[in-house]
Amino acid sequence: xxxxxxxxxxxxxxxxxxxxxxxxxxxxxxxxxxxxxxxxxxxxxxxxxxxxxxxxxxxxxxxxxxxxxxxxxxxxxxxxxxxxxxxxxxxxxxxxxxxxxxxxxxxxxxxxxxxxxx
Length: 118
Known about the structure:
Elements: E1 8-10, E2 13-16, H1 18-30, H2 33-39, H3 44-57, E3 63-66, E4 74-77, H4 79-107
Antiparallel strand pairs: 1-2, 3-4
């Protein structure tokens, strides 16, 4: 399948992209960075690093986490994070719509499947 993927760069960082969007969605569903990471077959450390990058790139935190322990801890996507998520999804939909004809034409230039040869 050929499709457009939107990544937003902020300096040397990828502030937001498909993987981070999926992580935010899983955190919304599970209320936990570790549970979201497990569902995505990702290490907790990797998930935490992605959350940290997002929180550093935006004006406000997109995810806040509570320490674990007896109370259980957890994480949630902030209202600001929900706004970021929604705006990204809208931009991605608009970008796909804007280039859909060109993507179809460009797809004809691609092989049927990636080659193992360099």
